Automatic annotation (TrEMBL):
Keywords: Membrane, Transmembrane, Transmembrane helix
InterPro entries with a match to the protein in the record: Integral_membrane_TerC, Integral_membrane_TerC_rswitch
Entry protein name: Tellurite resistance protein TerC
Family to which this protein belongs: Belongs to the TerC family.
Source organism per UniProt: Kriegella aquimaris
Subcellular location: Membrane
Amino acid sequence: MWIWVLFIALIVVFLALDLGVFHKNDHVIKSKEAGIWTVIWVTVAMSFSGVIYWLFSEGLVDNPTGLTPNNAVLKYITGYLIELSLSIDNVFVIAVIFSAFKIPALYQHRVLFWGILGAIIFRGLMIVFGVALINKFEWIIYVFGVFLLYTAFKMLKGDEHEFNPKTSFVFRQLKKVYPITHSLHGHDFFVKRMGLNAATPLFVALIVIELTDVLFALDSIPAILAITADPFIVFSSNILAILGLRSMYFLISRMLQKFRYINYSLVVILAFVGLKMLFSHQIELPEWVSLTVISVALLSGILASLLIKEKETPTEG
């Protein structure tokens, strides 16, 4: 239990340093700064694989699935890459939300900080219940597998309707229960208006981001559970990937058009882990196979997006 306490304390320290020291003053996050922070978070996450090896080799963490230290490291890295790759899709939605509510780049980091904090809490709960379900009801793994295949099929067909935050159910319900201002008031989430508290567009964007992250977690949590049901590996890989999501957003949100083939990578990843779940009792793949498939799918999507030139639409003369 103390390992969990120490890990959560470490995350709290990271978050406190982030908002209280490195981003104490609101400023626009440039691509160079975002790139540096992305490298830092990825380095921290990959370095944590050494901690995973140490914990499992010394028996300092519960090991309900009987993993060897080497296997634990491979499963941690695979889970981290799955969450990181699926987070790319999340970046697209966050960009739409910020655009819809006209959130200036100056305040976007603040919104994402509190959004990440909420995501950590919600995902922690989902992981606990997901692991408990798999351990108690083995057949639930087939439900997760079918769900991931269905999600991959929908993504491949492009059936997802264009998301408009201002017409979403969440926004409409929020307007009914709490006053909302139409203008920003600095970086404040709430203001006094005619003696009443009212939410600013900053707070509305935060709530919509929180709830859309919960929807994304419905894909990513089962995907990681396809790799391992070890609760500490699932939680640590997921949370460390989420921590890097903010810097990743500022790094790639300005290049969204370039990553036009990344959805196909996500389709392959979701389909692979879905099939892995469905055949988990018949076929046991070595962990390096999962890691290779996920890495190759992600790199292929990125390289295809960068190397294949977009067809120019003919202009009317």
